[in-house]
Design brief:
alpha/beta; Rossmann fold; 6-stranded parallel beta sheet; 6-stranded mixed beta sheet
Length: 320
């Protein structure tokens, strides 16, 4: 006679006891800020594909945006209740989720930060991210070349309270000051990335800064909005724009000549590396404390020549 798990549960309930079943695979939890942009879709892909390759189960929750800090706090707490072997966290706001991450670590669950690194960084088992300063530096070199080292530029610096955005914008500003002293940052704005936000901000800048010649954007969500505003004003290609991440819309605008360049990171590789560090932790080995993946510059000239397998998810991939 075959006894099913359901029958055992019913019998246990009738007897007033509880029953549990051992998980067949080690569990990794991943709390991420969003699954809407190309960046986090690629991160999701890298994490889940590497977990599958190494024989782990992975549970992934996204909070719905960088402004959903309270939602991510709730999700991290819920994931911790599942007792994963390791938790991966990409932060909505590094400081905003600090106390929650501290409680998870104190409970005995190691935390690996990836992409958007949570605080407290010194207590994380491992940190995996791109060289964000270099990403901003590459955009500076690109715009300086496109503008001949002269002109007013604006900086759409991305979400406040996250190190990756701050490091990227700092890399741009400091590099412009060194390589193109004839260029001047006349306006800078931190804001939650989004296509609508980029469009509205660019419309305001066209009115407030009529001599603006170039725009740095932190990612393709902002960059696409900027291009939309420029197309409406019939200024596409005239005001030079740089961006990052090479999402499908970014790829399209790059090929059309609306974007001068994209500085990109190896996002899939970051997801894979985070899981590899989790595997080390499970084996009792010491994980690598800090991993930075190199930045890459993409232009219309080399966009078809790069190997994207460690950069972004396949076009037909959709998070489950």
């Amino acid at each position: 006679m075959k006894i099913t798990k359901a029958a055992l549960v019913v019998a246990a309930l009738l007897a007033g006891t509880t029953v549990s079943f051992a998980q067949t695979k080690p569990l990794i939890a991943f709390a991420m800020p969003s699954v809407q942009g190309g960046f986090w879709v690629s991160m999701y892909y890298g994490v889940t594909e590497e977990a599958k390759a190494l024989g782990f189960d992975a549970v992934v929750l996204d909070s719905g945006g960088f402004d959903k800090v309270a939602k991510q706090v709730e999700q991290i707490e819920n994931l911790a209740q599942r007792k994963p072997k390791v938790m991966l966290v990409g932060a909505t706001n590094a400081a905003g989720i600090r106390s929650t991450v501290e409680r998870v670590i104190a409970s005995g669950i190691p935390v690996v930060g990836l992409g958007s690194i949570p605080e407290p960084m010194d207590k994380l088992a491992s940190i995996v991210l791109a060289d964000h300063y270099a990403l901003g530096q590459l955009q500076a070199e690109c715009l300086a070349g496109a503008l001949g080292g002269k002109g007013d530029v604006g900086v759409m610096a991305g979400p406040p309270g996250v190190d990756w955005a701050a490091d990227r914008a700092r890399g741009f500003r400091e590099s412009i000051a060194k390589i193109a002293p004839g260029m001047k940052v006349v306006v800078e704005k931190t804001t939650v990335p989004g296509r609508t936000e980029g469009l509205k901000l660019m419309e305001d800048w066209l009115q407030g800064f009529p001599k603006i010649a170039g725009v740095y954007t932190v990612d393709d969500d902002m960059g696409a909005g900027v291009i939309d505003a420029l197309v409406q004003a019939q200024l596409e290609g005239k005001i030079k724009v740089s961006s990052s991440n090479l999402s499908p819309i970014g790829d399209s605008y790059l090929r059309k000549g609306y974007l001068q360049c994209e500085s990109i990171q190896q996002i899939v590789l970051q997801g894979r590396e985070a899981v590899r560090q989790a595997a080390k932790i499970m084996k009792g080995e010491t994980p690598t404390k800090l991993i930075k993946t190199p930045a890459i510059l993409v232009t219309a000239e080399n966009v078809d020549k790069l190997d994207y397998s460690e950069i972004k998810a396949p076009r037909d991939f959709r998070p489950r």
